[in-house]
Amino acid sequence: RNFDVILCVCVSESEGNECISANAKHCGECIQAGAKCGWCEQENFLKQGEALSTRCDEVESLKDRGCNDSQIQNPTGKKWIITNKRVTNRKKVTGVETNKPKPEEITQIQPQKLRLNLRSGQPQSFDLKFKRAEDYPIDLYYLMDLSYSMKDDLENVKNLGTSLMLEMKKITSDFHIGFGSFVEKTVMPYISTTPSKLLNPCTGDQNCTSPFSYKNVLSLTSDGNMFNSLVGKQQISGNLDSPEGGFDAIMQVAVCGEIGWRNVTRLLVFSTDAGFHFAGDGKLGGIVLPNDGKCHLEDNVYTMSHYYDYPSIAHLVQKLSDNNIQTIFAVTEEFQPVYQELKNLIPKSAVGTLSANSSNVINLIIDAYNSLSSEVILDNSKLPEGVEIEYKSQCKNGVVNDKDDGRKCSNISIGDEVNFNITVTSKGCPNEGKSETIKIKPLGFTEEVEIILNFICDCQCQNNDVVKKSEKCSLNGTFECGACRCFEGRVGRNCECSSNDMATDDMDQTCRKDNSTDICSNNGECVCGTCECKKRPNPEERYSGQFCECDNFNCDRSENKLCGGNGRCVCRECICDPMWSGRACDCSLDNSTCLATNKQICNGRGRCECGVCKCTDPKFQGPTCETCPTCPGVCAEHKLCVQCRAFGTGEKMKTCKEECSYFNLITVKDRNKLPQPNDYPYPVMHCKERDANDCWFYYTYAVNDTEREVHVVDKLDCPSGPDIIPIVAGVVAGIVLIGLALLLIWKLLMIIHDRREFAKFEKEKMNAKWDTGENPIYKSAVTTVVNPKYEGKC
Fold first, then answer.
1. Which of 58, 449, 467, 472 has its CA 20 to 30 A from that of 140?
2. What pLDDT, in 10s, does the model give residues 748-758?
């Protein structure tokens, strides 16, 4: 049985041209559809049956459809750098510096301000340079837990001011230090509210100060001795539960102007030997109002701890980031894991292990500062909806980062310069086209880049040459960008119809061809008595005509190409290019392909049809009727090439690829598999050739249309040589047999000779004349001697 298999390939409209898919009704909608979309404002651009939205297409497609380049609205984005102050190249000066710049005069980031005009889908990029300035001022605020367990730590911190000042002078000549302390909220169950405990929360004979939430003991100052003096007067306090109210203190330090932060590097050292309360824990004391993130200091004391809950971690992150504060958590080893997790949530923060009595606090601060300052991380403010930003960093030693790591560089030393490439892209028309401002800054630094975003939501032609209530639009619309933009309730290419009168039988009748039942040939919709043809997923394919009866994709094909790739499909018929003819434009009128080497058309043995020779002499074949497979000498002509390609031997073995690639080689097992003359409609020449080893090989040569084919038997027919083993065995056997025969003959001759000699002896014996007797000269060998003394006695 035979089965027909039909393969259907479906293409969704969303996979096609985004400009076509947008179904744009005016130029503004078109350019928001994508970066490649353009709008043709040429008045006579639309063909009959084409909808208004087909003015929106890819720019190259609009040109191919006949729209003048000058009539295509295709605005592009642009960038302007407004402020571009160079980064500061400043060296640390020992001694007194006369022309010392102010902190606000030091520049570490470039540029500082720019404007971007953004077109939907069209990215705009700019380069940002960051360089860590030497001798950059530093503000450090030391925030310490003064609960009773930190009593021995306080003794070491009392001399911290001058010691830390000396160490920090090695890094910067402009260093300010401040001090604050915290305990806990002053309500139950965090502290005891009995009168005696409110005066002295410690047990026994310990003299402690009254509990408090947070105190700003010393605002930021360059006087280290004042730090030692004021801190030396501090006393330990106490509370009931283990977690402390440090988050309340951090919030006040971040937002209160009384701290005295300058626009320089800001460090907050948070020292404790306990955990922390956070948002929600205030309910234990009946406090339910969320922390408002505002300053509530009176006489440098936080007065609203009983009113507002602890801040959340996210709230702290926001305030620390907004105020460019880098946090160093100096905590005991017991609480290292807790604060390591907290560090992962707070950008530009570090954790150091505090000894039991805070004796290592200076080294801890120096190490943490070096760690924080060796990394720069860019952060941006909240982006408008529809705006995306990408970072790519070029860091020290040629390290390049992108995606999530593209906003940061590590292992930066003072004086190192790193570069970032920042790309901003918008989609559609964010914020209804109103300008937006975003800011990019390195975390922990006060400097920032201000970026003004302007969105291109309309075309220039929508602002120029606009005619409201135009006669071209039947006084019912605005003529802009080459087309009518109808008022509400009006439809049609010229706004000539009311939307309430669209679906009437009279109008539908004008959209039927030859009184057929199909409206717009089922390829469009009847709008205001005129057919507007459907769109195809492929933007190159279109319906057209008064009744959408035409298209440009249902013409004849050749080699799977529309109109053979040599013409245009117009209303389902091919309009061929010059020098081409036929229904599928697949017949070439160029005779140059039929010229033989003798400059004759088809070698004078055929005619040229559609650029291909049709040979009239059956003996001749090939693209120009010059090949004669059955003519004498064909076998000898191709012998060497067949030999080198089939067997890798012969005189052309080394140049086989260069000289012998003009035919297709097909191998067969034996001679019976070779093509026979009657098997094909073209002549086949059988060949038998011999190589240098007297081996025969068999092949056929034929020309199939424009290709040459050689079928060859894959084994050589070589004459068989002598069988060595039987010959050797025969020679050996012959030698052995001859030897045995000679030996037997010799033996036989010896027997005959012996018998003759014996007979002769017997005969002579019979004829002997002497008799047997004693030999007269014979003497016996035995001598008998008698003993004279022998008497016969034993």
1. 449
2. 999 999 888 88
